[in-house]
Amino acid sequence: MSNNSKQREPEITDQQQIQQSLRLLDQAISWFWWKTIAMAILLLAALAALSAQQLSGWFATQQQRNVTVIVGGLLMLLSISNGYALYRQHHFKVFRKHLAEQMQVTEKQRLRADKFYGLAILDPLTGLYNRRFGEESLQKEIMRAQRNNYNLAVIIMDLDNFKEINDRFGHAAGDLVLKEFSRNLKRTIRECDVPIRMGGDEFLVVLPECPKTNVQLILSRLGPFEVMLDRQKITVFYSRGSAQYQAGDTLQTIVQRADESMYAEKADRATPAV
Asked: For FRET with 124, which of 6, 61, 74, 143 sits at 20 to 30 Å CA-CA?
């Protein structure tokens, strides 16, 4: 099998691993349970056979009777031990049931915590990161860039005709445009990049370890897009600006340079050709 095929195999989650372990445990419990029952049946049969032999052997020698008593006692002890094993296996099954229930409760609590965490860091409309989380992420990346001297870039964007769309088609149409823009943005950037809705129709993308040539490649993919509003195909344009990290940069300075770059692009488009 090739490495690419291995990479396409879905990863097993912690919950799936737990379920698989519980299934193996159930199989082991079932095997020991039936093995113990079978042993108990065999011991009871042996005791019954021994008792029948003792009843029919009234005229056996004293030595034979002693051997029969000893063997019968051993079989009785084994039967008692086997019964205790069945009792312990029953308690083990009860413990397994309680453990599985506790795991289910824990998993539900984890999913609930993940949901609350998502609500805390994500913009509910677009699914992008919210401003607070985005600024925290950018601050961490700036500190990493300072320590490790690696490339860091940001892209800032806003929609050019968003107000006109809201005024003409209503806020529901504006929400649709923001969602479609966010989907296009997430398809364009890398998995390690951090897309952020700063507010309104303003967006920021943090690009860790991204040289300037790669930034230009990403910008070339961020073109206008079309949406259907009130049975009309509307082309949505937006402006982009970028900035590379420079020594001594802060969150405010790098975002300000990207903002200035975006407004320079707006000005260039607004200037009529001579």
From this structure: 143
From the candidates 201, 249, 259, 268, give the one annotated as an active-site residue.
201
* Residue 201 appears among annotated catalytic residues: yes
Residue 132 parent element (H or E): helix 131-148
* Rounded distance between C-alpha atoms, residue 134 and residue 145, angstroms: 16
- pLDDT digit string, tens, across residues 13-62: 666 666 666 676 666 666 666 766 766 676 666 666 656 655 555 445 55
Residue 192 makes CB contacts below 8 A (sequence gap 6+) with 208, 209
Cβ 266 vs Cβ 239: under 8 Å = yes
Euclidean distance between CA atoms 63 and 16, whole angstroms: 62
Whether 205 contacts 195, CB under 8 Å: yes
Counting Cα atoms < 13 Å in the Cβ hemisphere of 14 gives: 6
Question: Is the separation of the CB atoms in 251 and 137 below 8 Å?
Answer: no
| CB distance 176 to 229 below 8 Å | yes
